[in-house]
Amino acid sequence: MKKALVVIFFGYVLLLIETALGFQFQLGQIRLDGLVPLVAWYGLQYPLPGGILAVLGLGILSEQMSAMPVGLYVLAYAGEYLMIRYILNHIVCAAAWQQMMLVSFLSIEVVVVFLIGSGAAELLWPWGFAQAMLNGVLASFWFFVFNKANSFISVRVCGLE
Amino acid sequence: MTVLLVLAVVGLLIFVVVGLRLGSPAAVSPVKYFFVDLTGYLQKGLSGPSIWGKKLWRSYLALQDVELENRVLRQDVVQLQKEIGRYREALIANARYKKLLGIKENVGATVITANVVGVDLAPWLATITVDQGRKDGIKPGMVVMSGAGVAGQTMETSLHFSKVLLLSDYNSAVAAVIQRNRARGIIKGAGEGRCYLAYVEKVVDVEVGDRIITSGTDRIFPKGLLIGKVSSVTEGPISDLFQEITVTPAVDLKRVEEVVVFVTNQPFVESRH
Q1: Do A21 and B46 touch (CB under 8 A)?
Q2: What are A30's strand-pairing partners?
Q3: What global pTM score does this model have?
Q4: Which residues are registered as beta bridge partners of B259?
Q5: Can you tell me the distance from the alpha carbon of B82 to that of B72, in angstroms, rounded to the nearest whole number?
């Protein structure tokens, strides 16, 4: 429960930053996005069945900040989470480059759901793929930030060692 | 584990399909709007320093060429004074003609100024959040303008904040007319602050620089508001019935910071005029 709340808190902070200052980190139709890496980071660490609840919560939160059709964020993020859990049953994804590849691959799934669902499928090439690549390239940075923030909250706020 | 995965996928699909069919249930709305309000205040706080920085730049640091700019502006003022004189004449004449025809001016909208506090989470969707909401009388489907022209329309309102669908959004459509020859079309969003004029037949004479205004037939936008100017015209494929007309909006939709909302209790029914 605590982990789910932490990931929703991280997600909310990212949502706020991306919607308040997002246009300053935007180039064409792509933007610096920490939410897809956040779901990937969470998926790599926390298993079903509890894990999916936080992802659904994050999807519902994201929907409130966007004009996308109802259900798309939930579908995309939950799909990403479930794919990670499925992939982790078959491979080990420990190295940074592997995690970057994984996030890029999963971002393509998320972007496809978003663009087709919102009626902007023509943006899939090149913008959709560029966004997926950007998410992958920055995955290590985001994972570092999430790990640090998670340990800070665990140790300083919750008093866990 | 596999069973859990399958159950999760099935549950998710049911959730999404039900959500897509029903939308947000009414019972959820108060919670949702409370969330939007809370987030709006936080967005406002976050975007404040950035707006302050831009204003500082414009007010103090970007004044190097001010002398030259002043000279140009003085010339412009003289030119504009002449134009104002002509427009006043036209306005008086227009009022006289309207009186003669028994047409009364029924726009009667209150105007509210609002600041942009947030953008859409998805970079390809052109919606913004502004800091005025239901308490100020704003409802969905009201006209939003910025500077010289139409910016979009309100689509969702909470108590203190509203979401605005900009003209450049892929889901936006506004009934429009070419001011010079009165040819009708639909202004559609093309993303990245751009629009195009759809459904104008190939036989219609369209020129670069033609002004596009609202036609009033969509019952949302009153007649005669400036949308933008034609920036390119191509015939398009031979199989296509219509021209491909790109329109540069009068408002810089990618950098809009302040907007004006026309608050009215009834839709603008200009098509009768």
Answers
A1: yes
A2: A27
A3: 0.78
A4: B114
A5: 16
